[in-house]
C-alpha cells in the first residue's frame, strides 16, 4: 500500500493495510487498502458493503495482523461493485486534532 503524506503519486513505501469500515447501522466491512494518503484512501472489499456514496463511516486501519490500529472517520466518495470485489474511495472527515494524529500515523508508517 503506498502510504504517504501527499497524493498517491508520491514515491512511498508499499505495504498492505487492513481496513475495517463501520456504517451507522453497525455493519462492518473488511478489506485491503491499496492507497492511504492525507486526503483519504482506496479500498477493495470482498463483499458489497451496506454503506453507499456520501455516507459517514467509522474507520479502523492496521498495517498488519496484530499491529496497533488507528481509528477515525471518513465519508464515502464512491462505491464501484465489481465481479470479484467492490472498490471504494473514502475521504477523511476527522476533526483537526484527529487529522494531525492521522497524518503522524501515516508518516510513521511510510
Briefly say what this structure is.
The protein is mainly beta and 110 residues long.
Task: Describe the protein's topology.
Blueprint lengths: L1 E2 L9 E2 L2 E6 L5 E9 L3 E6 L10 E7 L6 E13 L4 E7 L3 H14 L1
Antiparallel strand pairs: 1-2, 3-4, 3-6, 4-5, 5-8, 6-7, 7-8
Number of helices: 1
Which geometry do the CA atoms define?
globular
CATH architecture descriptor: Beta Barrel
Multimer state: single chain
Structural class: mainly beta
- Mean pLDDT across the residues is 84
**SSE order in H/E notation?**
EEEEEEEEH
Helix content: 10-25%
CATH superfamily: predicted glycosyltransferase like domains
CATH class: Mainly Beta
Number of E-state strands: 8
CA distance, first residue to last residue: 10 Å
CATH-derived topology? Thrombin, subunit H
Main β-sheet description? 6 strands, antiparallel, barrel
Question: What this model shows, in words?
Answer:
The chain is mainly beta and 110 residues long. The protein has a single domain (2-96), classed as predicted glycosyltransferase like domains (Thrombin, subunit H). 13% of the residues lie in helices and 47% in strands. The chain has one helix and eight strands; from the N terminus they run E-E-E-E-E-E-E-E-H. It has one helix at 96-109, and strands at 2-3, 13-14, 17-22, 28-36, 40-45, 56-62, 69-81, 86-92. The strands form two sheets. It has a six-stranded antiparallel beta barrel. The longest helix has 14 residues, at 96-109. The protein starts with a strand and ends with a helix. 25% of the residues are buried.
